[in-house]
Amino acid sequence: MIDFFKQVLEITAIQIISLFGSFFIFGFVLSKIQASILNNYRRTVGWRGILWTAWLGTPVHEYGHAIFALLFRHKINEVVLFSPDATTGELGHVNHSYNKQSFYQSSGNFFIGLAPLILGPLFLVFLLYILVPQGPEIFRQLSGVQNSLAALTAGVGGSLRLLFSLENLKSFYFWIFLYISFCVASHLAPSKNDIKGAGRGWWVLVIYLFLFNILAHLFQWDFTEYIINFSHFFAGLFTVYVYVLIISLVHFLVSFLILLPWRKY
């Protein structure tokens, strides 16, 4: 019996990693870069320095929560798109409620909490396509980056060369794109409250998946193979995440170099 449950746990872990592994890694790395960017502003021009990106990035972040709350049939009680509070550090919030007896609504907390990590990157790719010359080609350079480290290095290098080409640097729309991208990418990572809310839905998903795998294991259903095959559809999303990390790293370097003379400590 112990071996049975051990096998089910291993199967469940493999399925979770296949579905959400790259998503979690991206969120963790992005949160670290975002914290470093905001720290650049705090250590130079103070807390209000983050407002030059937050005024736009925060509403995009909160819209992500609100849209997914509606998709999972939650009741939206309040939406504050932008209301910076230096005391609490809060920039905005979406207050929502749900039926705790509903699996769909309860599990939806996971996706609602992490919604900005889904919709925000897609919005940035949309901007790339409509505002930047050779935008589709820049993104195409990143195709296949998940296959190997060499492909990742080559794809990132090719994208950067095209992104900061002379043609783009001469384009007014490119600079609009770059600023909007900095705003959005700087406020994609989930807050502590977002993670707390997502955790409620996460455990519902894990428990139900574990119970389903007990049944699947008893009847010898190879459900894991379907999940792994389905996860291949996330390859395009991984490409989007790599692109967002590039934008975030560029923002970090730009903010660090420009603000260096005003660094206070």
From TrEMBL:
Organism, as annotated: Candidatus Falkowbacteria bacterium CG10_big_fil_rev_8_21_14_0_10_37_18
Transmembrane regions listed in the UniProt entry: 12-30, 110-132, 172-189, 201-221, 233-260
Domain of life, source organism: Bacteria
Keywords noted in UniProt: Membrane, Transmembrane, Transmembrane helix
Protein name: Uncharacterized protein
